[in-house]
Amino acid sequence: MSSEEFEKLHEMYRSLYEELKLIPERALKSHGEERKKLVRTFDERHGEAEEVLQGMEEELRGAPSSYKNAMGAKLRLYRRDLGKLQRDMKNSASGFSSSSQTVQGSQQSIYSSQNQQSTHLQSQRALLLQGTESLNNASQSIERSQRIAAETDQIGTDIIEELGEQREQLDRTRNRLENTGENLSRSRKVLRAMSRR
């Protein structure tokens, strides 16, 4: 599909599913210790299958968008099939004799625990998505700040250049005033000399 790891997990899941789907019918036909053993085996394999599906979901998150729809559809189908097997096993387990009710109670506890784990994972995913959105918003805010800083820097550079030009003009004006002052001094000297004569 999209990655070698996803394909490996897919093969592992198919192998576990093939083993799991035979257990409910066998449990229905068995009794006593044999049935308890089948229930334990089902629980172990079901837990392994859940872990494999979680691994596939992680691979899905990093997959290219062109593969995500097909991979997501496959995962939903696998979860549905696994849930159906779990219900079948529960129905098979409900055929236990009264002496086996404690096993049935522990089965229900396991199913409840798995549901709680699934709910916890969903809330963690929601938090992760919320965190990602906050991070994206922060990144956009930083980009806007950088643009404003660059514009401010450009304005500052323009002002400095303009002030430099004004300083040059002031220097030239001061030089002209100094020359004018010198000319006036010379003119006064000439006028004094002429008045003496």
TrEMBL record:
<protein>
    <recommendedName>
        <fullName>t-SNARE coiled-coil homology domain-containing protein</fullName>
    </recommendedName>
</protein>
<keyword id="KW-1133">Transmembrane helix</keyword>
<dbReference type="InterPro" id="IPR010989">
    <property type="entry name" value="SNARE"/>
</dbReference>
<feature type="region of interest" description="Disordered">
    <location>
        <begin position="89"/>
        <end position="125"/>
    </location>
</feature>
<dbReference type="InterPro" id="IPR007705">
    <property type="entry name" value="Vesicle_trsprt_v-SNARE_N"/>
</dbReference>
<dbReference type="InterPro" id="IPR038407">
    <property type="entry name" value="v-SNARE_N_sf"/>
</dbReference>
<feature type="compositionally biased region" description="Basic residues">
    <location>
        <begin position="186"/>
        <end position="197"/>
    </location>
</feature>
<keyword id="KW-0812">Transmembrane</keyword>
<keyword id="KW-0175">Coiled coil</keyword>
<feature type="domain" description="T-SNARE coiled-coil homology">
    <location>
        <begin position="132"/>
        <end position="194"/>
    </location>
</feature>
<feature type="region of interest" description="Disordered">
    <location>
        <begin position="171"/>
        <end position="197"/>
    </location>
</feature>
<feature type="compositionally biased region" description="Low complexity">
    <location>
        <begin position="92"/>
        <end position="118"/>
    </location>
</feature>
<dbReference type="Pfam" id="PF12352">
    <property type="entry name" value="V-SNARE_C"/>
</dbReference>
<keyword id="KW-0472">Membrane</keyword>
<dbReference type="InterPro" id="IPR000727">
    <property type="entry name" value="T_SNARE_dom"/>
</dbReference>
<dbReference type="Pfam" id="PF05008">
    <property type="entry name" value="V-SNARE"/>
</dbReference>
<comment type="similarity">
    <text>Belongs to the VTI1 family.</text>
</comment>
<keyword id="KW-0813">Transport</keyword>
<keyword id="KW-0653">Protein transport</keyword>
